[in-house]
Design brief:
heterodimer, A: 166 residues, mainly alpha, B: 368 residues, 5-stranded antiparallel sheet, 8 helices, globular
């Protein structure tokens, strides 16, 4: 427990950020990290050794994020409106709009594809490591990555204004 | 083109990741307190500032007591924990339950449901949403907020705001709350509330249509009074208490000032609040919430803005309806705003890059 406490103090921000990119929602990210940590502590409390905490939690986090989207759709909160805009001034800059499109496209991607993109382009993991982490072949990582990039590219060329979709 | 997409994707992911700041979170591992029941030896993790989610997750490690009556909730759908025996004596009618909550120190809530993680004091608010026909179950919305003092500033600690099912036994003065239940975590949340509460109340709870009293802002104000050594105020007025024939204490004068509190009287999943200021401006009690609108799905702040809401200055005025003055953003855009100081009617705010802007509370215009 002491070891986990120290590890969590050091790595909590990194874990939450990774979970945030995987889920697209800060609260869900914190929830996910919390669940994984509780499971890890529970495991060590039962006497099981966790040889490499970093690898264990990294894999647990990605798997939990993917599993999360297998649950029934009606249990997910989807915001349909934009915040009240009374008194707002000016328009969003083009850059912000484009990044928002990319973010939305990433969130709309299938969970495994999103995980591949996050692990490849945020974590900068080589394809072999991503494959090992997700338990898939390197070929699958390549194809998922390619489809994911195509999705992002399409979103970047999309002319629909931000806020136009639920 | 591919390289360009990859590079922009990298940049977007890095920016998004950096846009959340979990660095100030405090992590504490707790072991089972001696003598507590219903805690099967696990070591839950508490992470402050994730409030309800964390407390629910923590209680998620607690065993199910399966404590039901025929008129009560469905079995196995929610988690429960026995409070300290004898901590609460509760008559089993709704009016009596209200009286109870406005007259006791709510020890069971403070010590069991929303215990402090920063060594601070836990303040509680509650709404009694209803009771079962046999009076054995109380359907509550419970708010527990910890506040503590750091460097002379009142800081929020851990907290929980969630529907709670309290089970009572006995009758009259010997009535006791024997257990409480909270909904399950994450995707099981809504289903477990439907199992705990009658349908109409469940929908209200799922949609967070609850109004615990005192509310967040009142708890923060109370904490500021207590922790900064000001006289302790009586409990605030509650309209449901009045409806049930309970004479409340008059409200104390409102407490103004800058509060490092992120809770607000609106959904912070769509509009993020970094901090807030309260004070009298132009004949109204004004709340200034600094932060900005978030991207859909509770993401990062799109641009910095302030949101103004006002109330009557007199907290005992008959009409306490809040007026939403509006949202105001500087042009050109800046990042998520935080109030740094307020002088007369001018608010000084900064964004994460250090850019400073001023906002006039009377003209509602930005400058600088």
């Amino acid at each position: 427990v002491v070891e986990i406490t120290e590890y969590v103090r050091d790595c909590y921000p990194r874990l939450v950020r990774r979970a945030y990119l995987l889920t697209g929602d800060r609260a869900a990210a914190e929830d996910l990290v919390q669940d994984c940590l509780t499971r890890c502590i529970d495991r060590t409390g039962r006497g099981s050794e966790v040889a490499n905490l970093d690898a264990y939690l990294g894999r647990a986090l990605v798997n939990a994020a993917i599993s999360r989207w297998r649950r029934p759709a009606h249990t997910r909160e989807v915001l349909t409106g934009t915040p009240a805009g009374g008194g707002m001034v000016g328009d969003l800059s083009e850059e912000v709009v484009e990044r928002d499109r990319m973010w939305r496209a990433l969130q709309a991607a299938p969970a495994r594809q999103r995980a591949v993109l996050v692990l490849r382009y945020y974590e900068d993991l080589p394809e072999a490591e991503v494959a090992a982490l997700l338990g898939v072949s390197v070929g699958t990582v390549r194809s998922q990555s390619s489809r994911g990039l195509a999705r992002i590219r399409l979103a970047m060329s999309d002319s629909e204004p931000v806020g136009g979709r639920p | 083109m591919n390289q360009d997409v990859e590079s922009r994707l990298r940049q977007m992911l890095a920016e998004r990741a950096e846009s959340i700041d979990p660095g100030d979170l405090h992590v504490e591992l707790r072991t089972r307190p001696p003598g507590r029941t219903g805690w099967p030896g696990r070591v839950p993790v508490l992470v402050a500032a994730t409030a309800a989610v964390v407390v629910v997750a923590t209680l998620g490690a607690v065993a199910v007591n399966g404590h039901n009556t025929p008129s009560g909730p469905a079995p196995g759908a929610s988690l429960s924990q026995s409070p300290t025996p004898g901590a609460l004596v509760a008559p089993a009618t709704q009016a009596d339950a209200l009286r109870l909550f406005f007259s006791t120190d709510r020890t069971w809530l403070r010590s069991g449901l929303g215990g402090p993680s920063f060594g601070g004091h836990v303040y509680t608010g509650v709404e009694v949403m209803g009771s079962s026909a046999d009076g054995r179950h109380l359907y509550l919305w419970v708010l527990c907020e910890e506040f503590y003092l750091r460097n002379g500033v009142v800081q929020p600690g851990t907290g929980v705001s969630a529907p709670v099912l309290a089970t009572v036994t006995g009758s009259g003065p010997s009535t006791r709350v024997t257990a409480w239940r909270m909904p399950l975590n994450g995707s099981r949340y809504a289903a477990s509330i439907r199992a705990m509460f009658p349908l109409n109340m469940a929908e209200l709870a799922i949609n967070e249509k609850a109004d615990p009293q005192p509310n967040d802002a009142q708890l923060a104000a109370q904490a500021a009074r207590d922790l900064l050594g000001l006289p302790v105020a009586p409990k605030p007025t509650d309209t449901s208490a009045i409806a049930n024939g309970i004479t409340p204490s008059p409200q104390p004068p409102r407490t103004g000032g800058l509060f490092q509190v992120r809770q607000a009287p609106f959904g912070t999943s769509v509009w993020w609040v970094n901090n807030q200021w309260y004070g009298a401006v132009a004949g109204r009690w004004l709340g200034v919430y600094a932060g900005g609108p978030r991207t859909p799905g509770g993401g990062s702040v799109v641009y910095g803005a302030v949101r103004l809401i006002s109330w009557p200055i007199d907290p005992n005025a008959p009409d306490q309806t809040q007026a939403e003055v509006g949202d105001f953003a500087p042009s050109p855009r800046v990042g998520s705003l935080t109030i740094k100081a307020v002088s007369s009617t001018t608010v000084t705010l900064t964004d994460p890059t250090g850019r400073t802007v001023s906002f006039d509370l009377v003209t509602h215009r930005f400058s600088g």
